[in-house]
Structure formats: structure tokens, C-alpha cells
Specification:
By secondary structure, this protein is α+β, with helices and mostly antiparallel strands. It has 20 helices and eleven strands. This is PX-domain-containing protein.
């Protein structure tokens, strides 16, 4: 929260000029009614020259390390800081306090930063939204009037602040490109953007200035939402919502808990049947079938009978998922969205990658529709239900042109009044953050151990196969050539097809017509073949069932990275709330808006709590069910092999000579080297080792000059 202008910390020789502007009136309409940043004329002509300077130098260029010349320093505009900002010297940033005066050298140097010069002559960067030009107020002769402060309504749980005009905040978006992954690995998981989610989500702007265009929604006197409140909204307010792109899907309700109120029941989505297609414009790409399965209401069926499923299937490619993720990030800035799988430019049509991508997209979209308010977002409904390509191309630009919600997202959240205690909220936020870190570390260890379990299944498969080969080698008197070193058997002791080892009926005996040895040999051969089947079960279980569980664990490996924005916003809001109730006077509007955001963050915590129970219950039961089914199949095959040694099955084995086993041909070259075990695709937040620059350069040279390269072929 901004504070009243403080006494200067600088020497009297460099004292600032006294201004009539009061930076502490952040909820007043005195300075926002006539604010026109970058548009209102400047009597001194500085505004025109400033725009000319920006057009000549180029807006969005980065700050150079070179010193500014005298021309740059002459074209400045006076401004005053609205909020406190703690800058970092290593980023060429300046620290300012609310009420500090300085000169703006360059209003926009890119990414929402401005270049300023303070009264001590120091030049550095500050956020563009943290200050306001003062020349406009001096020229218009306007003075803020504290009597214009609006009183907070006791009946409204979403107080309305004054309108304002300012540049929109930054909204970082992860659209699945390879560069964010490279950037995270380079910076140890940190982002270039130094703005916290408290700023980028619009939460800070909502607390300090209120909603930009607040609609009026009538609530009950108790502060709770009545069921018929939506129907009672006046037509004027509906038109106001529609003009700002805010409809019924943009209004969200929080019940006591706090927890999100669900408007529609959950449903399930399958991403399946990937196929490769080719376009003249975009080239080859993979398209996936996305099927939404809803439980259709059926009042004729009893409550114990599941209602029939209603299915809607559409075709989507990866770029469509990118559009969905980008639109959701802009329209729902206050909730924790799962990261979108990253793009891949090499090997993206291989069967293994397409299947891995299909699974990642299915888990991503199901995570979206599991969220109580994300599942009924207009872009989600449009993504899952639009079957016509013509309609998709017609309506998609409207969704892409929707502005970031920012403070409007919080202005559309309604909750019971005074349902939070600040101390309880602080304890909940601290405990939630600690729990997220612990869960993340624990799941990472679990993923590593589970990978070893899968490797152990492959080793067990090799061991069962080797045991089968050894048993078959014993009863057929054929050497196991490739494993003599591992088994310790001397191959010279074996004489293939010698009379003393097997008889004419293929029995493991030196006597002709031995019925007992014939039955024993055939029963042991069936046991050897059963062990081969058991080895196949171990191999398939590790590659399919356990791979699915391993992929499931990946989604729960980085909870703090996903909910870091919620934690940051929760902490910063508590700080603003503390400032609003301390210092001798209480700002009811700021306190109420802080309460709205705290309800939002704690509803997100409750959502994580609910989904954590569901996820870990699902992954544990999935693992147990898979193990039970796996061992049941092994047990069934072993029981069948065991019956061959009991009557009457054992006696029936003597009715015909022994047939050659299909695995005897493998004794000379046993199949004991399985293909590498497939691993889950890395999570977006997994730390990946950086490749040496020399290796990357060498790969580039090989691509160009190698035998298969373009220049290599020409050479």
C-alpha cells in the first residue's frame, strides 16, 4: 500500500521541490479521473519531443551499458513514485519509496520498465506502473481531495475502486516453446521476468486501485451469495459485462472453506487416435482426437445406476492446445494452471514420441477440466465442443483478441464477507508452502526409486528367460553358448544329439521307449516355455503398466513450481492487508479487496488439497491393481505348468513323442539383451543438464558438412 510522502532522505542541497500531489491517496478518484498517460498534452513541449525521441530510438530496446548523452538527459519528464520498489543493482535498477520525485529519461525501454534519474543523479530502471507523471497535474491545476474517497460498502464483498488508465501489466505465458526450458536450465529454474505473479496477475493493481470496470451485483445483507442473485442483475449491468467481455463464465463464487463453487459437474477427456497429416501452409503435423465424456442426466434411472455417457469428439493439433493454454493464462490469472508440454522439433513423428505426447496432452487437459472454475471457461468450452473448422477459424480470433483479465478477474469473484482471519490465513500460507516443497522432494525421490523398480523388472525378465534357457538346455542336451561364462558351464562337456543324452522319442534318457523320462521331459519343457511367458510378462509390465504409473507421478513432481504464483500472491496480499490495518487508520476498501484475493488463494489451496487426495489415491490404487493383475497372470501360468506333473495330465504326456520347443533355436544365441526401457518424457520443470557449447557447435558443423549434410553431399 502506498504511504504518505515522507521526509527527504537526501541532503538539503539536493532537496526535492515540494509538490501538491499526495501519493497516499491511492483509492481516491482525484488523480485518476483526469489521468491520461502519454496522451495529454505537455505545455512545455516535452511530451511531443518525448514521443519523437521514442520513435527515433525505438521502443522496447534494452538498456545499454553506455552512458547517456546530454540530449537524453534534457528530454525528461517529472514524475513521482506511487509505490515502494526495491531494485537490484546487478540489474541496473533503482530503489524508490512512495512519494519520491525523479525525472523519467525514457518511459519505455521494454518489458514494462522505464529509465529514470533520481535527485542524486543516479540513473536506473523502475517498473513503468510504479510511478505517475506529475506535469499533467501541475498544468491542469488539479489537487487531490481526500473528501472524494469512497466509503466501503458493508454489503459488498467486492468493493469497487476508482477507474484508471494505465498500461496493462505483463503476463508471462508458457506456450510450450523450447526456449523457456533452455532459459530455466540456464538460470537454475528462474525467469528473466523480475515481476512477481502478485503484479503480473493484476492482484496488486486490484488492491491498490480497485477493479477497472466493476459491475454492480446485489448481495444478501449477510454477505453470502443468494442463489437467485445472478437472475436479479439488471439489464444495464449485463450490457456492461458484455461490453468488457465478461459474461456468466467470468463470474466465480467462493463458498465457506474457502473453496470454489462448482457450476458444472466434472467430466473426463480422452486424447486418442493420433494421425499424421500434411498441409501446404504448415507442412506435416499430428492431429489428435479429443473426446469429452459427460454423464447425461437421466431421471428415469435409479440413483445406483450410472447414467449413460454423452460423447463429443473433435480433432485438435498441438498448436490448438497452445492457443487454449495462452487464453486460459490471460483470462484466469489468479489460478494455478498446469504447464503445457513443450514442443519438439526433431523426431516428433516417431511412434514413441507421438504416444508420449498423446499421454501428456491427455493429462494436461484433464487437469484443466478438474479445476472447479477452469472447466467452464469459454475457451475450454469452445476448445472441446467446436467441431467445424469453419467455425473454429471464425471464432478463434475473438478469443485470441481478448485482453488479459488482470484486476477484472478478481472483481468478478464473490465470497461471504469476513470469512477469513488474517492470522489463520498467514499460518495456512506458510504451512502450504512448506508442504509443497516437501511433496515435491518426496515425489522426486519416488520417481527415481520407481525407475529402479522398472529396471529391476527388466532384470527379472532377463533372469527368468535365462532360467528357461538353462532348463531347456538341460533336457535337450544343447549348450547355451552365449551364457557359458555367466552360468559357469563348460561347453566341451556337451555333445549335441548324442545317443546317451536323448533317445529317439526326444526324451531325456539313454534308454529307448522310456515312458517315465518322456513324461518328465515334456513336463519340464512346458515349464521352460512357461518361464518364457513369465519373462514376457515382466518385460511388458515394466514397459506398459509401470510406465503409465511413472508418467502419472511426473504430474505431481513439481507442485511448488505450479502453485508458486498462488503462494507469492498470498504472501504479498497479507503484507498489504497488514499495512492497511496498521498505522492508526484502517482503509476498509483495501482490506476488503485483500480479503477477496485471500479467498482466491486459499480456494486454490483447497483445490490442491482435494486434487492431491485424488491423485495420490489414484496412483497408489493404479499401482496396486497393476501389481495384482501382473502377479495373478504369473500365478495362473505357473499353476498350469504345475498341473503337468500331476495325474492324469502327467500320464497323457506319454501318448506322443516330444516336439521341438520354439525356444530351442535361441539356445545358440539367447535373447538376453532387451531393448532400452522407455522413460517418461521430462516434465517442463525438470532440470536438464546443459550441453557444452563445443558439442552444440560440433553438431551444427556435422549437420552442414557431414556425409548426410547438404554441403557434405555437394562436396
Amino acid at each position: 500500500m502506498a504511504t504518505l510522502p515522507r521526509s527527504s532522505k537526501f541532503p538539503s542541497s539536493t532537496a526535492r521541490a515540494v509538490s501538491e500531489f499526495d501519493a497516499g491517496l491511492n483509492t481516491s478518484t482525484a488523480w485518476t479521473e483526469h489521468l491520461d498517460v502519454g496522451i495529454s498534452p505537455d505545455p512545455s513541449g516535452g511530451g511531443a519531443s518525448k514521443r519523437q525521441y521514442l520513435s527515433e530510438s525505438g521502443v522496447g530496446t534494452s538498456l545499454s551499458d553506455d552512458e547517456l548523452d546530454s540530449k537524453d538527459l534534457e528530454e525528461t519528464r517529472p514524475a513521482r513514485a506511487l509505490y515502494q520498489f526495491q531494485g537490484k543493482a546487478e540489474f541496473r535498477e533503482l530503489s524508490v519509496e512512495a512519494g519520491d520525485q525523479f525525472e523519467v529519461v525514457k518511459e519505455d525501454v521494454g518489458d514494462g520498465w522505464s529509465l529514470i534519474q533520481n535527485v542524486e543523479g543516479e540513473i536506473g530502471l523502475v517498473p513503468r506502473s510504479y510511478y505517475m507523471f506529475t506535469s499533467t497535474f501541475t498544468s491542469s491545476g488539479l489537487e487531490p481531495d481526500s473528501s472524494k474517497r469512497r466509503e466501503a460498502s458493508s454489503n459488498s464483498i467486492t468493493p469497487h475502486g476508482s477507474p484508471r488508465l494505465s498500461q496493462p501489466p505483463l503476463y508471462p505465458q508458457n506456450t510450450g516453446e523450447w526456449f523457456p526450458s533452455f532459459r530455466r536450465s540456464l538460470l537454475g529454474g528462474k525467469s528473466f521476468n523480475r515481476f512477481s505473479s502478485f503484479v503480473t496477475s493484476g492482484a496488486e493493481e486490484f488492491i491498490l486501485r480497485g477493479p477497472t470496470s466493476p459491475p454492480d451485483v446485489t448481495l444478501s445483507a449477510s454477505g453470502h451469495i443468494s442463489e437467485g442473485s445472478i437472475a436479479s442483475i439488471e439489464e444495464e449491468n449485463r450490457n456492461k459485462l458484455g461490453s468488457h467481455g465478461l459474461g456468466a463464465a467470468d463470474r466465480h463464487f467462493i463458498d465457506v472453506g474457502p473453496s470454489w463453487r462448482e457450476k458444472i459437474p466434472p467430466f473426463r477427456i480422452l486424447v486418442h487416435s493420433p494421425s499424421k497429416r500434411t498441409s501446404l501452409l504448415s507442412g506435416a503435423y499430428t492431429v489428435y482426437s479429443v473426446t469429452s465424456m459427460f454423464h447425461a442426466p437421466n431421471e428415469t434411472l435409479p440413483a445406483t445406476v450410472d447414467s449413460p455417457l454423452a460423447r463429443i469428439t473433435v480433432l485438435r493439433r498441438f498448436s490448438h492446445f497452445v492457443v487454449l493454454h495462452t487464453a486460459l493464462t490471460r483470462r484466469l490469472p489468479g489460478i494455478a494452471l498446469p504447464p503445457l508440454p513443450e514442443k519438439q522439433y526433431s523426431g516428433r513423428f516417431s511412434n514413441d514420441f507421438v504416444e508420449a505426447r498423446r499421454g501428456d496432452l491427455e493429462r494436461y487437459i484433464n487437469k484443466i477440466v478438474r479445476h472447479p472454475i477452469a472447466r467452464y471457461a469459454e475457451i475450454v468450452t469452445f476448445f472441446l465442443a467446436c467441431e467445424s473448422d469453419t467455425e473454429w477459424n471464425h471464432r478463434l480470433p475473438a478469443h485470441l483478441s481478448m485482453p488479459p483479465a488482470g484486476p477484472a478477474f478478481y472483481s468478478q469473484i464473490y465470497h461471504p464477507a469476513f470469512n477469513l482471519d488474517a492470522e489463520d490465513a498467514e499460518d495456512a500460507g506458510s504451512n502450504f508452502e512448506t508442504h509443497l516443497h516437501a511433496v515435491g522432494k518426496g515425489v522426486q525421490v519416488l520417481r527415481t526409486i520407481f525407475g529402479r523398480v522398472r529396471d529391476a523388472r527388466i532384470e527379472m525378465s532377463k533372469a527368468e528367460r535365462l532360467l528357461s534357457y538353462s532348463l531347456l538346455s538341460l533336457i535337450t542336451s544343447r549348450p547355451l553358448l552365449s551364457s557359458s561364462t555367466s552360468t559357469g558351464v563348460n561347453e566341451e562337456n556337451y555333445i549335441p544329439k548324442a545317443k546317451s543324452l536323448i533317445n529317439s522319442e526326444g526324451a531325456w534318457c539313454w534308454r529307448e521307449g522310456c515312458q517315465g523320462c518322456l513324461k518328465l521331459t515334456k513336463a519340464m519343457q512346458k515349464t521352460s516355455e512357461t518361464l518364457q511367458n513369465v519373462a514376457d510378462l515382466y518385460d511388458d509390465h515394466a514397459r506398459r503398466s509401470q510406465l503409465a504409473t511413472h508418467e502419472f507421478l511426473k504430474n505431481m513432481a513439481h507442485p511448488f513450481s505450479i502453485y508458486e504464483g498462488v503462494v507469492t500472491t498470498h504472501k504479498a496480499t497479507l503484507s498489504r492487508h497488514h499495512n492497511a490495518i496498521s498505522g492508526g487508520h484502517k482503509d476498509d476498501e483495501v482490506v476488503a479487496r485483500c480479503e477477496t484475493i485471500l479467498n482466491t488463494t486459499m480456494a486454490e489451496m483447497e483445490t490442491y488439497h482435494t486434487q492431491k487426495i485424488e491423485d495420490f489415491s489414484a496412483v497408489t490404487t493404479e499401482h496396486l491393481d497393476g501389481e495384482i493383475a501382473f502377479y495373478e497372470q504369473i500365478l495362473l501360468r505357473l499353476q498350469i505348468a504345475r498341473r503337468n506333473f500331476d495325474k492324469p495330465a502327467f500320464d497323457h504326456l506319454a501318448e506322443s513323442p516330444r516336439q521341438t520347443s520354439i525356444y530351442e533355436r535361441d539356445l545358440e544365441n539367447p535373447k538376453l539383451a532387451p531393448k532400452p526401457l522407455s522413460q517418461p518424457c521430462p516434465h517442463v520443470f525438470d532440470s536438464t543438464p546443459m550441453r557444452p557449447v563445443s558439442a552444440a557447435i560440433q553438431d551444427g558443423v556435422n549437420i552442414l558438412l557431414g556425409p548426410t549434410g547438404r554441403l557434405g553431399k555437394l562436396w
